[in-house]
Every structure is written in C-alpha cells, then in structure tokens.
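User: Here's a chain of 165 residues. Predict its fold as tokens.
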Amino acid sequence: MTTTRWTPGHHLAADAPHRHPELDGDRHHELGGHAAWYLLAGGITTGIQAALFLALRPEFGAQWANLAAIALTTVGNTEFHRRVTFAGRQSNAGKRHLQDLLTFAFYVGYGSIVLAVVDSLVSRPTAWEETGALLAASFVGGLIRFVALRWWVFARPEPASAHLP
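Assistant: Prediction complete.
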C-alpha cells in the first residue's frame, strides 16, 4: 500500500509502515522510484528549458539564451529532486550546495560546448537544430547527474556490519 503526501521531510510516495526498502534489502524498488521521479522532473524541466531557449534566443542569441534557460530551470529541478525524488535520504549540506554549483556549471559549460560544436558543423544553425542538440546533450548530462545524485549526494551510508571482517 502506498500513500502520497508532500511536505518537507516526508516522502511523496511513502511505503506503508510495514515495508522499508532500506531494511528489507529491496533497493531495486527504491532505485525504480528514484529513477521514475527523476525522469518525470527531468522531462518537464527539459521541456521548459527548451521553450525558454527558443523564446530567448532571438533576442539574446544562443549562448545567452541557454545560460538564462539553465539558470531559471536548474533551481526548481534541484529542489524537486531534494524534496521528492530523494526525499527521506539524508545528505550533507556541503555536498548539496556543491552539487547545486556543479550542476549549474556543468550544464552551462556543456551546453555552451554543444552550441559551439553545432555552430562549427552547421554554417547557420536554426533554432530547432540548436534546441535538438541541447536536448540530446541534456539527456546524456541527466544520466550523469542521476548517478551523481543517487550514489554521491544522496548516498545511503553503508551499515556498520559491512565494514566488519
């Protein structure tokens, strides 16, 4: 039985009291839940980011539009993952802030490189060609980010018995 609630410090999809994945070894269930929420948030955020890029590109150019779109979507996406995707998992505040900074820097740098490559390969890239390249890059970057979030920022500490001989 699954209950749904979203308040700070609670799971959005919390398991019934008799079932705790961290206690019964059912980490695949937990991983599946994390992946599902991550994909949902990533899909929505990427769509918003693409729309912002397309709206801002004519006025500011591709590089600045990409920077603005990432700046406007990264904060909400990161907070969603903290409160929903990985709710209930503890993380060090320093790791979270470092992750926020690295996420923003990674996507801005990565997107800038992708746009520069498209510009070098296509004499006059259209907004849709640039957007397509950014979407593909976002997918790859998202996979890398999920791994970093799941196994570094929100890593579950190993039980003390795992370190015994």
